[in-house]
């Protein structure tokens, strides 16, 4: 029964909290698992973190006292503390990019009953004299199919708060909580904090733009196939310098290699490392040279690969290994170290017409 007796209501809340602590923790774990599955089944892309906590009992009471008690008692409105703690169960979702926040929000609204939304992104951006972390806060409860299935039925009375942030916003929130005295401070210190906040916001935007630019370059590399003839490009003399757009990089490597190995999935981190291996040996090696190299030598290297695998059935010979052998064959002096000593000696023996 609600009352205006704060001491009584504290006892009631503590009793409720202690009796339900274990079930609150179970509900937290269930909601985290469900949300993770729902996000994975969507086309949102990668999120870096989904974690949760049950708010500390005494922190709940302090929050109620700080935010609600005075007004409720001034209006002579009886209360129960638990009704005002929307984040008793709190879940944080950290996306890689800011534009994923709205997508995550849509997924959650499709699967849970929305009680309230607090858009801290819009709140911060709508004022010139404000700093603080951004993010979208949603108060949710199980609803619809989740309750119908019985999976969430034991937790139907447990609402929970979800905070959705980008990776950069999450980093800023950690620092923001460490900055003391953010309101009654000298203007020069306030300006410095605002500058720092703006740098994080700029980083968020640039991170997203880099993602978009990278995706565009990958589409260009994979959707615009090469012709069968080698790229018309004159190989430069060593040390003469080459236009930077012609030098091999991860994107134009994918365009060339993807043409010759259409059924192979080149993983980004392996491509990055492989291109660096090439450039360490030949800093001005170009996309056209790679294309020429594969056109001229791929057939012979594939013959060697088939022979090698026939004799070594438990070994592998990936497209990266094929390209390494093609590079060596195109310029044995420059690319001597693109192969290990054993691999190089075995390949040289094959070229000489012999066997190991």
UniProtKB/TrEMBL annotation:
Pfam entry (one): RelA_SpoT
SMART domains given in the database record: RelA_SpoT (SM00954)
CDD domains per the UniProt record, alphabetical: NT_Rel-Spo_like
InterPro entries the UniProt entry points to: NT_sf, RelA_SpoT
Signal peptide: none
SUPFAM superfamilies in the cross-refs: Nucleotidyltransferase
Biological process, per Gene Ontology: guanosine tetraphosphate metabolic process
Domain of life: Bacteria
PANTHER family: GTP PYROPHOSPHATASE-RELATED, RELA_SPOT DOMAIN-CONTAINING PROTEIN
Listed name of the protein: (P)ppGpp synthetase
Organism from which the protein derives: Geothermobacter hydrogeniphilus
Phylogenetic placement of the source organism: Bacteria, Pseudomonadati, Thermodesulfobacteriota, Desulfuromonadia, Desulfuromonadales
